[in-house]
Amino acid sequence: MIKTIIIDDEPLACAMVAEFLGKHSDIEILAQCHNGFDGVKAIQELNPDLIFLDVQMPKLNGFEMLEVLDDTPAVIFTTAFDEYAMRAFDQNAADYLLKPFSQERFDHAIQKFKERIPQQLPSKETVEQFAIQYPLADRVAIKNGSKIHVLPYDEIFVVEADDDYVVVRTKQGAFAKKRTLSYFESSLPSERFVRVHRGYLVNVNHIDRLEQRTGQGYEVILSSGQSVPVSRTGMQILKPLLEK
Fold first, then answer.
1. Cis peptide preceding 118, ω within 30 of 0
2. Which superfamily is assigned to 138-242 in CATH?
3. 216 backbone dihedrals φ, ψ, rounded to 5°
4. pLDDT, tens digit, for every residue of 74-92?
5. Do 80 and 101 form a contact (C-beta atoms < 8 A)?
6. Measuring CA to CA, which residue among 106, 52, 107, 104 is closest to residue 74?
7. Is the pLDDT assigned to residue 120 strictly greater than 60?
8. Does residue 140 contact residue 156 with C-beta atoms inside 8 Å?
9. Between the CA of residue 29 and those of 14, 53, 76, 110, what are the distances in Å?
10. Main-chain phi, psi angles of 37, to 5 degrees
11. Domain ranges (residues) in the chain
12. Where are the strands (E) in the chain, listed by range?
């Protein structure tokens, strides 16, 4: 028996997938979830073989979900998202179903999944690159133990490198995420976040003032009170933004 979970913020969309699954007696629906938080919890507790996952959800979208999961089941995306964009996942997911889809198209996705067991899962790198190319929300999702924190861009003061991790410092506190600073530099909007130093990416909206350091060089003082060094290259990027 194949175990599955349906995750979609639209109850009617969940109901449609459940109805289509009614013709597949070898698939058991373990749960239906209407937001990403409940979806992550259900996956961790129930360990499904397959999930039907919407991409665009308000609290935690599909890609954010995949990023915070430690172990990812096979995925069939159910989405109204751009067809050409979703083709990026064609080799990294069981299938993608563009809403509205028919029973016939749904059955084809199920067959494709069964033929590819054991399934090639969406890699973290694929999820990252897709999130950079097609950003869905002005926020960062970070898993801290059993909790998932959604951090709006406006609340982020600075992102700083820390060995294999980065530390995202926000109004809610500091959170570590296993990513590179270059990843955040690519995914965060460049007009709001500037890499002022090889180890720091600052939110220009939280820069309180610019001060000259003892000797040569500058540092920015953030609204949180933290001081961050500014390299020569960082100064060249930062200066015109501060003059606006």
1. yes
2. LytTr DNA-binding domain (2.40.50.1020)
3. -100, 160
4. 899 998 877 656 665 655 6
5. no
6. 52
7. no
8. yes
9. 11, 13, 14, 14
10. -60, -50
11. 2-132, 138-242
12. 2-7, 27-33, 50-53, 74-79, 95-98, 139-144, 147-152, 156-162, 165-170, 173-177, 193-197, 200-203, 207-212, 218-222, 227-230
pLDDT in tens, 66-75: 888 888 888 9
pLDDT at 119: 56
**Are both 2-132 and 138-242 of the same fold?**
no
> Over 70: is that where the pLDDT of 129 sits?
no
The amino acid sitting at 11 is: P
pLDDT tens digit sequence for 169-228? 999 899 998 888 998 998 898 889 999 999 999 999 999 998 887 767 889 999 999 999
74-79 vs 95-98, strand pairing mode: parallel
2-132 adopts what CATH topology?
Rossmann fold (3.40.50)
Q: Which residue is listed with tokens 């067991």? A: 117
Residue 159 identity: V
C-alpha 138/C-alpha 64 separation (Å) is 12
Which of 63, 95, 103, 58 shows the shortest CA–CA distance to 78? Answer: 95
